[in-house]
């Protein structure tokens, strides 16, 4: 067998080198990937660990609702908790203002969303819902240590992030409203990423780039389709050789269909959020807990770095809920039992795989 | 084991028999995929076949999409060591991740960057020893990113492909490209894709099943082989070390 420089054979396990030491908020995954948390523990679980370093995450916004901001807030706050440098670009005049809305980690275990309430009502729990709580019980027993050392935190949206975590941190805010071309943003990203080069070995620090509503119409460059694509491509290549993750959110309705598809192909991880209608009786009958939902989260693509095997999720559509109006929760959809059936329970816990045929109810 | 499982794909491409000259010699192969089903596994498979130990093929990978480490790890699991192939002069990796063809940048036009790329490719192939020059594969991953690098001037990309096709006649190279079919549908004009398909000898489409995604069947492959006047359709499941191909309804070949 021909020898490579660091291994004797293609097939031997690399046990010789110890796992590289990782900074806070990072964990190892399969295929040599290193993950950082999305800030939403439920989403991390769905994605198989989190967002891999060197990947580009794209979130398709619902142009009529700001739910993508929920994802961004948690993502950015999680990075600040771990002391990870952050670059935030948005079409607002003063992006710094958004930092004041970042949430703080949930106070203590008692306040947390997943109380062992199910235990009290265990007798009343309908069997097919139990699967939903099984994983969570394990999570509770994972030993809640000091918030800082956890890989992923629950965030309390009603509590703003402590000032000391925002001031004095490496945070770079960029307004993209007035830029006629994207060279400023590209330079800022390049400078930011040059501090976090990837080399084989330990990773002391990872960075996060957040670009919100990238093709928003108030941005001067928003009709320059090829320039935007070119920017995304160069950002992606810079990210691939650094220890960071970039999130770009964009409203796909503002792009031509062909370019929308190009953007989708660029993403390593592709998500979309959609708001629920206020009065949708049909859906309310079909799904339990519809009233608590604020929207749907769809996972279209999961990052496949260093591997060719696609990730096929059991379900690709999830509900976004605000538990007690404080905690962001991503859950599987649960089909409600159908009334008046012959006794057979519709025991599936919402295993909705995406289909190319989109019906009225787009699961 | 590898041979057996991928038989349907190899069969459709004419790769199931180890015959000289290599069946893909002088051919243009186009892989078209979609967001739901990525076609890179076909690319990896063809790269692995091209670098098989009982042949002297040379492969040139023009990568716009992923860095070398990504392909290296994947091909290792498929049983092919890209590092040693590179050291032995059988594999050339052109890292195009940072290629930017900006207008007015030191006189580099969008076409300029691609012309330079073609020059480099031609030079690399001409510099090969005679014996290695028999079977060269040029693999491009992927064409839509080449268009982005050329700032949307698909004419330049088509020119580049045209020049590469001259290589297929001059040196009997095979040209293997990956592109995304769903980008070119509808109004924006599928001219680019149609032109590509017109010149293609073997078209491999990677699509999801009509019923959606499943854990056991990742999608369907449709191989149209103009040379053999044959079209085949079958399902596939991608694994770390192999691609399993089987007819619909069957578990394996």
TrEMBL record, chain B:
Entry superkingdom: Eukaryota
GO biological process, one term: tRNA wobble uridine modification
GO CC terms: elongator holoenzyme complex
Name of the protein this chain belongs to: Elongator complex protein 6
Family label: Belongs to the ELP6 family.
Pathway assignment: tRNA modification; 5-methoxycarbonylmethyl-2-thiouridine-tRNA biosynthesis
């Amino acid at each position: 067998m021909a020898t490579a420089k660091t291994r004797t054979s293609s097939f031997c396990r690399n046990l010789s080198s110890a796992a590289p030491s990782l900074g806070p908020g990072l964990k190892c995954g399969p295929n040599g990937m290193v993950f950082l948390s999305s800030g939403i523990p439920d989403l991390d679980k769905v994605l198989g660990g989190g967002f891999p370093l060197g990947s580009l995450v794209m979130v398709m916004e619902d142009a009529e609702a700001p739910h993508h901001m929920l994802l961004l807030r948690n993502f950015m706050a999680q990075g600040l908790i771990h002391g990870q440098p952050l670059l935030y670009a948005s079409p607002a005049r003063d992006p710094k203002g958004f930092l004041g809305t970042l949430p703080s980690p949930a106070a203590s275990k008692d306040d947390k969303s997943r109380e062992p309430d199910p235990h009290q009502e265990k007798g009343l729990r309908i069997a097919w819902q139990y699967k939903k709580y099984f994983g969570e019980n394990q999570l509770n027993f994972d030993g809640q240590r000091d918030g800082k050392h956890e890989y992923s935190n629950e965030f309390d949206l009603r509590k703003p992030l402590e000032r000391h975590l925002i001031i004095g941190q490496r945070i770079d805010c960029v307004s993209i409203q007035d830029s006629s071309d994207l060279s400023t943003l590209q330079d800022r990203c390049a400078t930011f990423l040059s501090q976090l080069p990837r080399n084989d070995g330990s990773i002391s620090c990872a960075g996060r780039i957040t670009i919100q509503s990238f093709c928003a119409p108030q941005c001067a460059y928003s009709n320059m389709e090829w320039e935007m694509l070119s920017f995304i491509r160069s950002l992606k290549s810079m990210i691939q050789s650094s220890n960071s993750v970039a999130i770009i959110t964009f409203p796909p309705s503002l792009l031509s269909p062909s370019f929308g598809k190009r953007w989708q192909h660029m993403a390593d991880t592709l998500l979309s959020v959609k708001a629920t209608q206020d009065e949708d009786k049909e859906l309310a009958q079909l799904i339990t807990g519809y009233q608590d939902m604020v929207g749907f989260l769809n996972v279209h693509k999961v990052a496949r770095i260093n591997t060719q095997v696609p990730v096929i999720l059991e379900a690709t559509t999830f509900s976004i809920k605000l538990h007690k109006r404080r905690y962001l929760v991503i859950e599987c959809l649960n089909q409600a039992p159908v009334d008046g059936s012959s006794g057979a329970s519709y025991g599936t816990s919402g295993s909705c795989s995406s289909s190319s045929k989109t019906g009225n109810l787009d699961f | 084991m590898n041979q057996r499982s991928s038989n349907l794909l190899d069969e459709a491409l004419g790769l199931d028999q180890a015959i000289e000259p290599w069946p893909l010699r002088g051919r243009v192969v186009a892989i078209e995929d979609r967001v739901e089903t990525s076609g890179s596994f076909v690319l990896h498979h063809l790269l692995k076949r091209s670098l098989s130990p009982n042949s002297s093929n040379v492969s040139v990978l023009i990568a716009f999409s992923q860095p070398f480490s990504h392909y290296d790890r994947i091909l290792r699991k498929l049983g092919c060591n890209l590092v040693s192939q590179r050291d032995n002069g059988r594999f050339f990796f052109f890292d195009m991740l940072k290629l930017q063809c900006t207008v007015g940048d030191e006189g580099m036009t969008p076409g300029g960057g691609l012309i330079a790329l073609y020059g480099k490719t031609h030079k690399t192939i001409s510099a090969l020893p005679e014996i290695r020059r028999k079977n060269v594969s040029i693999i491009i991953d992927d064409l839509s990113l080449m268009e982005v690098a050329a700032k949307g001037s698909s004419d330049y990309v088509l020119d580049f492909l045209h020049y590469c096709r001259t290589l297929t006649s001059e040196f009997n190279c095979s040209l293997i490209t990956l592109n995304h079919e769903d980008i070119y549908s509808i109004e924006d004009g599928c001219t680019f894709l149609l032109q590509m398909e017109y010149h293609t000898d073997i078209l491999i489409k990677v699509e999801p099943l009509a019923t959606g995604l499943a854990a056991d069947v990742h999608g369907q492959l449709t191989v149209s082989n103009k040379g053999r006047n044959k079209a085949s359709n079958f399902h596939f499941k991608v694994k770390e070390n192999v691609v399993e191909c089987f007819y619909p309804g069957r578990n394996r070949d």
